[in-house]
Design goal:
The two termini are 41 Å apart. The chain has helices at residues 59-63, 117-124; strands at residues 10-14, 22-26, 40-41, 50-58, 97-100, 102-103, 107-113, 132-136, 143-145, 150-157, 160-168, 178-184, 192-199, 205-208, 219-224, 234-240, 246-248, 255-258, 261-264, 287-295, 301-307, 326-328, 367-375. The strands form 6 sheets. It has a 5-stranded mixed sheet, with no helix packed on it. Strands 21-20-16-17-22 form a 5-stranded mixed sheet, with no helix packed on it. The radius of gyration is 27 Å and the shape is extended. The chain is mainly beta and 382 residues long.
Length: 382
């Protein structure tokens, strides 16, 4: 109920469960109300159990089913992390694994430690059939194949025995290039998800179009053996400088790919400084550079080129070491480190971009106005 006929100077809220627990707030409604003060609990301070909000949700997210790690319908998020620094904090799985990408119509290998008793028990109790499922590589985690055929084996790796699950990609819904997740269920254990990749048979090629490379000038490459569809096939681009520094390049600001053309921007006059998109000369020094392009559905390629009209490297002041070689320039990548899986409700869960604010509660637009419900679990800042 809304009361608009009153002009209170103070509001007191009393808990229904414990009338000794109350909170008084002074309101700056008029000159007699006094100054606004911070709320003070009259009893022991307690954190809220829930945070309730009201805002827009994308229609396709609201009606699209999501599944948990076990493959069951998920109605609530397991964890919602708010981080003001937009840093991803959750790992996919605590069980270390290594995957060997498959070429189309080949086999994907997932390798696990097989050293301590817990590792051995977990792997040994994976049944020889019916324990693996193919899952979509997104937050929905839709099951694509409930009965993957696979084999179990062992191999030597750096003098140690590792356990191997080998899965043929020549199975239903597993024949296309790209990333997938595989759900693995060991007896009496929770299911885990691992991320695997199927790569195209052909290796991408980058052919430099300029007759010579000039520092501060944009470079253009003709791209072969890559099909550009509705989604950008490039996952990440790195540039290895003659100093040894590995620089992660920014999409659009530092590079762009359109159909069969890849552009490495080096023009410092491009874009605007105030919005962080100002151009950078990525090839300032003399020497050999390696352009490393990671694809979502193709093999990673390295393209080497040489700059001769740039600055000489000052070896005395070059402090590049193994610990500081990697430099990221605000790379726009939704992938997390370690496993690379993407998660909903991680880093920026309170902000939803729907592309349109024309939606209504009736669902006539691209978004719906709905209630948001979060359980409050503060993290220790000590």
């Amino acid at each position: 109920m809304e009361v608009s006929s009153l002009n209170p100077a103070e509001v007191k809220v009393v808990s229904k469960a414990d009338n000794k627990l109350s909170q008084s707030v002074k309101l700056n409604r008029d000159a007699d109300a006094g100054e606004v003060v911070a709320p003070v609990l009259t009893a022991e301070a307690k954190s809220p159990k829930y945070i309730i909000g009201y805002g827009k949700v994308a229609v396709w997210d609201y009606y699209l089913s999501n599944y948990d790690d076990e493959g069951k319908l998920r109605y609530k998020p397991k964890t919602t992390t708010f981080d003001l620094n937009l840093a991803a904090t959750r790992k996919v799985t605590e069980k270390p694994y290594h995957t060997v990408p498959a070429v189309e119509e080949g086999n994907v290998e997932v390798q696990f430690n097989y050293t301590d008793e817990a590792d051995k028990t977990w792997f040994d109790r994976i049944p020889t059939t019916g324990a693996l499922q193919l899952v979509s590589d997104n937050e929905n985690q839709t099951t694509l194949n409930k009965e993957l055929v696979y084999t179990k084996s062992f191999k030597e790796h750096h003098g140690k025995t590792v356990a191997v699950l080998s899965v043929s990609t020549n199975q239903s819904n597993f024949r296309s290039r790209g990333y997938y997740r595989i759900r693995i269920k060991s007896a009496d254990s929770k299911a885990i998800l691992v991320r695997v990749k199927v790569e195209g048979k052909e290796t991408p090629e980058f052919l430099l179009k300029e007759p010579s490379v000039q520092s501060g000038k944009n470079l253009h490459f003709a791209v072969k053996n890559v099909v550009v569809g509705l989604e950008n096939p490039v996952e990440k681009v790195e540039l290895i400088l003659p100093t040894g520094e590995i620089r992660t390049l920014r999409y659009i600001s530092d590079y762009f790919m359109f159909n069969d053309l890849f552009v490495l921007y080096n023009d410092v006059t491009r874009a605007k400084e105030e919005d962080g998109s100002k151009g950078v000369n990525n090839i300032p020094y003399n020497g050999n550079y390696t352009l490393r392009v990671h694809f979502n559905s193709y093999k990673t390629i390295d393209k080497v080129f040489k700059v001769t009209d740039g600055k000489d490297i000052d070896k005395k002041n070059n402090n590049t070491t193994a610990g500081n070689k990697v430099v990221a320039l605000g790379a726009k990548s939704s992938m997390l480190s370690v496993d690379g899986m993407k998660f909903d409700a991680v880093a920026g869960a309170s902000k939803i971009s729907t592309g349109s604010d024309s939606g209504s509660a009736g669902g006539g637009g691209k978004s719906l106005s709905r209630q948001h419900h979060f359980q409050h679990r503060p993290r220790c800042q000590c």
